[in-house]
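Researcher: Please translate sequence to C-alpha cells.
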Amino acid sequence: MSSFGRIFRISTFGESHCPGVGVVVDGVPPRMLLSAADIQQQLDRRRPGGNKLGTERNEADQVQILSGIENGQTLGTPIGMLVNNKDQRPGDYGSMNQIPRPSHADYTYQQKYGIHASSGGGRSSARETIGRVAAGAIAEKFLLEKYGIEIIAWVSSVGDFDTDSVDMEIITRDDVDANEIRCPDAQAAEKMTSEIVAAREAKDSVGGVVSCVCRNLPAGLGEPVFDRLEAKLAHAMMSLPATKGFEIGSGFSGARMRGSVHNDPFIKKGDTLGTTTNNSGGVQGGISNGESVYFRVAFKPPATIGQAQQTVDYAGNSTTLEAKGRHDPCVVPRAIPIVETMTALVLADLVMLQKIRE
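Model: Translation complete:
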C-alpha cells in the first residue's frame, strides 16, 4: 500500500524517473500557519547532489503546494504536494532492463505485478521518500508548535565505525548538520567519511545505522495492543528503502541483561512520575511514559554497485552485470530527514488518536 496513518494520513505517488513524485496529506488541522519554506527545509536535507558522499544525481527538489493551503494557513482539507523530477536519466538503465539487479527489488516487483519500472527502481527507489518527507515536515511543525515535541536523528554508525559519545538529551540539528556525514562526533565522522569515500572509489557500497531521539513526548501515546508506539515506529522505519533492522531502547542488548539491571525505577519528577534510567526507550506496554523515546535503524549497503557481478537475466541465462546510473554509496547521511519525518508522521497520528479520548 502507498498510504500510511489513520487520522494524520498520507498517500505518496510517483516513480524515480517519471515526471514527478508527491503526496496527498489528509488530517492536517485547519488554521495552521504553513508555507512551502516550512516543508522545503527537510527536502533540502534529503535531496541528492548535495555533497561528495551521495549520488551525482542533482535535483533541486522544490516543492509545489497544489491544495489545502490559502493565505499561508491550512484549510483542514487535503494538502497535495508535487516535486518534479528534472535530472532523471532513464537511458542509463537500458542495458539493465532484462537483468534483475542482485538484492534490488527488480525481480520481486516483476514477480508481484508481472511488470516493473524499467529505470531507477520505480516505487522501490528512495526517490519515493520525497512525499514522506514533505508530509512529515508538516507533522513536525504541528508537533513542535502544539506540544514542544522535538525529533532529532543522526548517523551513529557506518560500516565498522560507530560513535557512542552523543548525548541524545541535548543534541541539536545544527550539531548533526555540522558535517556532511551527519554524525555529531567529529572524530567518528572523519572515519565514517573515509569509509564511504573508499567504498565509492571501489565502485562498492556500505551500510550504517541511524539513531533517533524524540523529546518532550507526553505520557500516554500508543494504542494497545496492535498499534503500540514501538510497533508503529518499527512499521514506519522498516517501510523505508534499504532498512534491515529496528531496535528501541536497550534493544537487543537488553536480552543479555537481568531484570534487576534493565528495570527503570520510578521517581517523582515535578507533578508526575519519571524514571532514573531509560532502558525502556520511553515506551512501556506500548505506551509512552514521558521519557525520551529513542531507537536505532539499520540500513544495508545500497544494492546497486558499479562492480561487475555474476548473475542471471530474467530468462535464467548467466550474465555479468555492471550497473550504470548514479547511486549513493551509503544511504545513511541522506536518511536522517527521512527517519525524522517518518517519526513525526507516527507521533502526529498517535497524538490525534489520543486527543479523541479527551
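Researcher: Any highlights?
Model: The mean pLDDT is 93.
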